[in-house]
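$ ./design --mode recover --in tokens.txt
reading tokens...
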């Protein structure tokens, strides 16, 4: 998988731990504490806000909170919960408190033996967790509702920080790539890199579009209609077709940034659309963890064809007849 440095904080973790040796705990769990903040460690019922990367022993990235831009909330479960065992995922976080950072190697052979589940096919022996604890929410005498209200207030603040950073991400992207986009009243920014000679679509027309979408903040491609691009960016899915997307324009079948941007392009045009989250996936993201909340997006688009409603109906009838 594509590798990159996600933040100075992560790089510091890696460098600080480079000279330390791993210790081995129960269940074959390997660990090294990079920083001990001297605070109480997590107990059953507590929650931790962490930044974390998860990689395999094949050097593939599985997930990263740094890419999402939001911390992950970890619930410390009771050891008696079915499926838990000494040296598991839950055990890792019980070794940490606020301000701590550590690296863990979760033993997959132990996991398979203890849970009676097969090892995942994406790793051989270990999955590695680089963890930094931002905040420790202690259950203590709090009711569940009081504890989660505290967590929700904290997380809402993190989301607002993410929202506030969006404009800066867009400006940095434009500056870094030496772009001079045009900007509409809605906040959409676009550059026509190759202007077509055909007519522009109007609302209700059906368009055929080749596209590649990426996160402005990281440049990571999350979707494309082009097989070669998917293969190059490790997003290839053999279960989906790679062909131009076909949809009605201006009738909310796609995100608002597409509806607006495609209406600006003559048929045959190629363009780059820089779409703020308000015109994309908004404050919730895509719900799958691929597109984070308040994530600005960039799409490279080619408007291949424009079909008028009557022509589109005729094409559909011909396809049905065949």
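writing sequence...
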């Amino acid at each position: 998988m594509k590798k990159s440095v996600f933040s100075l904080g992560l790089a510091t973790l890696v460098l600080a731990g480079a000279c330390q040796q791993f210790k081995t705990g129960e269940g074959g769990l390997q660990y090294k504490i990079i920083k001990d903040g001297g605070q109480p460690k997590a107990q059953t019922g507590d929650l931790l806000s962490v930044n974390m990367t998860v990689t395999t022993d094949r050097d593939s990235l599985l997930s990263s909170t740094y890419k999402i831009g939001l911390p992950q909330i970890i619930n410390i479960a009771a050891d008696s919960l079915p499926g838990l065992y000494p040296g598991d995922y839950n055990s890792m976080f019980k070794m940490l408190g606020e301000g701590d950072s550590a690296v863990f190697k979760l033993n997959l052979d132990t996991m398979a033996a203890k849970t009676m589940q097969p090892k995942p096919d994406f790793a051989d022996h270990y999955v590695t967790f680089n963890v930094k604890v931002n905040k420790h929410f202690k259950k203590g005498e709090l009711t569940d509702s009081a504890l989660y209200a505290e967590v929700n207030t904290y997380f809402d603040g993190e989301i607002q920080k993410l929202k506030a950073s969006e404009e800066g991400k867009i400006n940095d992207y434009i500056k870094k790539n030496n772009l001079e986009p045009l900007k509409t009243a809605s906040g959409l920014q676009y550059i026509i890199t190759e202007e077509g000679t055909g007519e522009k679509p109007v609302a209700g027309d059906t368009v055929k579009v080749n596209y590649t979408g990426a996160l402005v903040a990281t440049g990571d491609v999350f979707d494309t209609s082009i097989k070669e691009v998917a293969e190059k960016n490790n997003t290839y899915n053999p279960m989906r077709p790679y062909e131009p997307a076909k949809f009605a324009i201006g009738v909310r079948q796609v995100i608002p940034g597409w509806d607006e941007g495609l209406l600006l392009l003559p048929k045959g045009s190629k363009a780059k659309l820089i779409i703020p989250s308000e015109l994309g996936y908004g404050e919730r993201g895509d719900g799958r963890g691929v597109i984070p909340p308040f994530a600005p997006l960039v799409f490279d688009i080619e408007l291949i064809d424009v079909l008028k409603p009557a022509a589109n109906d005729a094409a559909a009838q011909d396809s049905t007849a065949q």
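exit 0
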